[in-house]
Write a structure and sequence with these properties.
about 70 residues, alpha+beta, SH3 type barrels, 5-stranded antiparallel β-sheet, 1 helix
């Protein structure tokens, strides 16, 4: 797996600032919340994963290049 550049991480942090709301589009994880579940962004980590506090109580991150979420 190729790690994202500093510029890509900064871009993600601007696109998904802490406190913004997202909706899950797809996640490749057996513990994933249902597609369409909404949550609040906690932040973006150093490998580009979007850390989300899902409304279901879960805190699974959206993995860059694997999972998909959209801002609401």
């Amino acid at each position: 797996m190729r790690l994202p550049s500093e510029a890509q991480i900064e871009s993600l942090r601007k696109q998904y600032p802490a406190g913004s709301r997202v909706k899950l589009v797809a996640m490749d994880d057996p513990q994933a919340p249902a597609v369409g579940t909404e949550g609040t962004v906690i932040g973006v980590d150093d490998i580009g994963s979007i850390m989300v506090a899902w409304d279901t109580g879960s805190t699974l991150s959206v993995a860059l290049g694997v999972d998909i979420c959209a801002r609401v």
